[in-house]
Specification:
It contains 12 helices and 8 strands. It is of the alpha/beta class and 309 residues long. Bound molecules: glyceraldehyde-3-phosphate.
């Protein structure tokens, strides 16, 4: 890399040169390392701790056209008290029009309200609409904004356009945290995942997030691994720590624990807290609770222990 980080976004050409100067991803190596780390087995006490840590990192999500205020209220109740003495989740993630409902239900609980502003999931609207969507969600009580990047612009090499959109949305967030969704299932190559990760971080992302949950493949282990390498290298280069959020298709406690192993072995334990690692998921919490109960009692919980969605 010949360009210093301070100058990277000074022009379209400098940004392109920087992103294309990043080392290429060894695809076979990334796949093999992620698969190898996925075979690590964690037992008993460590497993119980890992399950509770994973619960505390969940962004409990509902992103359906049929979502209602009642469904969001019920989800918020579950987010705060998932069952037994399990910890609260990190956040509840909803569409912008339901932020007010979630904010009211979660007031004073410590559980954050996250919202997918910016024309989720396609990201296809004007910058004015994205900025306005963001400001409205924040004004309604969102603590965190999950924005999607413009994949059309990224894939056609308009990196500065993507950078400027992220920077504008970051400004519109005010004190709310910004998670930037790369939608890795549409980025075609691991090199693009690495480039989009750096682009988002350079533009001001507080978190980088794999997917919307609406496109397959979503949060695959190699993609999460590449993003964890990116935040590690970005902190080494700039001193600024950025979080990572795999989202989409993570449904079992086993998958969640694999993610924690990836974090520990790639970015390191500085990232093993809900401040720096989240798991976006709609149904994972149920399996984490079931496995938690199984570890504690030797049997799976009955339906009165927690609500099944
Ligand atoms: O951000 C979270 C995702 O939308 C949830 O995806 P999921 O329904 O596959 O868990």
């Amino acid at each position: 890399m010949t360009t210093s980080l301070a100058d990277v976004a000074s022009s379209d050409a400098a940004l392109r040169a920087f992103l294309h100067g990043l080392p290429g991803v060894d695809r076979v190596g990334a796949d093999q390392r992620a698969a190898m780390l996925g075979t690590r087995s964690i037992k008993t006490t460590a497993k119980a701790q890992a399950i509770d840590l994973a619960i505390s990192m969940v962004d409990l999500t509902t992103l359906e056209g049929a979502d209602t205020a009642g469904k969001v209220r019920a989800l918020c109740t579950k987010a705060v008290r998932p069952g037994g003495d399990a910890p609260s989740v990190a956040a509840v993630c909803v569409y912008p029009d339901l932020v007010g409902v979630a904010a009211e239900a979660l007031k004073g609980t410590g559980v954050k309200v996250a919202s997918v502003a910016t024309a989720f999931p396609s990201g296809r609207s004007s910058l004015e609409v994205k900025v306005s969507d963001t400001k409205l969600a924040v004004a309604a009580g969102a603590d965190e904004i999950d924005m999607v990047i413009d994949r059309g612009a990224f894939l056609s090499g308009q990196y500065m356009k993507v950078y400027e959109q992220i920077a504008a949305v970051k400004e519109a967030c005010g004190t709310a945290h910004l998670k930037v969704i790369l939608e890795t299932g549409e980025l075609s190559t691991y090199d693009n995942v690495r480039r989009a990760s750096w682009l988002a971080m350079l533009a001001g992302a507080d978190f980088i997030k794999t997917s919307t949950g609406k496109v397959s493949p979503a949060a695959t282990p190699p993609v999460t691994l590449i993003m964890l390498e990116a935040v590690r290298d970005f902190r080494d280069a700039t001193g600024r720590q950025v979080g990572v959020k795999p989202a989409g298709g993570i449904r079992t406690a086993k998958d969640a624990i694999k993610n924690l192993v990836l974090v520990n072995e790639t970015a390191g334990d500085d990232w093993l807290t809900p401040d720096w690692f989240r798991i976006g998921a709609s149904s994972l919490l149920n399996d984490l609770l079931m496995q938690r109960e199984k570890l504690a009692t030797g049997r799976y919980a009955g339906p009165d222990y927690f609500t099944l969605d």
